[in-house]
Amino acid sequence: MDLTLLEQTLRERGEPAFRARQVWEWTARGATGYAAMTNLPRALREDLTAAVPFSTLSVEAERESRDGTLKTLFRTGDGHPVEAVLMRYRDGRRSLCLSSQSGCPLTCTFCATGAMSFGRNLTASEILDQALHFRRVTEVDHAVFMGMGEPMLNLDEVLAAARRLPDLGITHRRTTISTVGWLPGLRRFVDEVDQPIRLALSLHAADDELRSRIMPVNERYPVADVVAECRRHAELTRRRVFVEYVMLGGVNDAPEQARALAGLLGRDHFKVNLIPYNPWAASAGGKAADARPNTPPTAAGGLFEGSSRERIAAFRHELERAHVPVTVRLTRGRDIEAACGQLAAAPKPRRRRSAAPVG
Ligand code: SAH
Hints:
Blueprint: H1 3-12, H2 18-28, H3 42-51, E1 57-64, E2 70-76, E3 81-88, E4 94-97, E5 101-102, H4 112-115, E6 120-121, H5 124-135, E7 142-145, H6 155-162, E8 175-179, H7 183-192, E9 198-202, H8 208-214, H9 223-237, E10 241-247, H10 255-265, E11 270-276, H11 283-286, H12 309-321, E12 326-328
The chain binds S-adenosyl-L-homocysteine.
């Protein structure tokens, strides 16, 4: 829901100030439309239905993984694709993976989003509407800004959305913003954000030479500067920064590279998350969604192979020996290209594959 338009519409109708809050409270709790908002006058509900679309996004396709992961492809009002994911875990956790941009202007070589064309920054309402869509399916309690896009390139809108997530049931401590280390945004995040929102850094290599090769953004903001800024955040907040490290076979997964990573990070300020590489197909213009599960990727995606289990275990062991906290991320939704780095919507509208959208 376009919250600016909502407020403007209510103001123009001369409604009391509390109306916007009433509408938001219903929406944040999973209402499926204005009709459900029974403490609003009927005429107002009808006017709002006509004047303020209930979502800024339309659902174009939805796929459910064997593991219960749900991936939704949305379109903005002006036709840009946006994907977001709901992960449902056995222990009851319900985690959302949200997009901050349609596409991404950075071109990390292992990421499917980086291979599609960049659309634009999303508004706070467009980010919230991703979350609200899943809130109408189930209760939710975690969110990560690890979908399409670089959150630090769109920080104001990302923060405006993140600040409302507690109303949906997602506290700031359970909200994580992930970045490549885009320093202008990252500095502002460290200096300005008072809420205990968590920070994650996509590092993937401990030295500039390799990191620049796989993440061109490193030419601009080198490893030492980015890690120093994250360390400053950890010191200020007394909370560890997560470090994401995607395991690329024969590229960044050698034991000596683990030792270099441990030396760079130290034992006090970071927690490393090793991410199994998720393959994607870059043929036909990055149409990852058309790839079959586990087929060998082609073109850009095929530059990489995931590290073997043994290599991941050995890498992990080196970090543990150096007393750096480390976990290996569980991959979810791989069979529907919903896993990390696989979000890349085809440029043209695709056929809807699932049942009717909720809400
Ligand atoms: N731009 C932000 C937000 C995207 S997060 C960032 O880079 O942090 C997406 C996470 O998935 C990042 O850590 C990214 O490096 C990782 N990723 C990208 N492609 C991947 C792939 N093919 N397999 C596994 N992880 C991948």
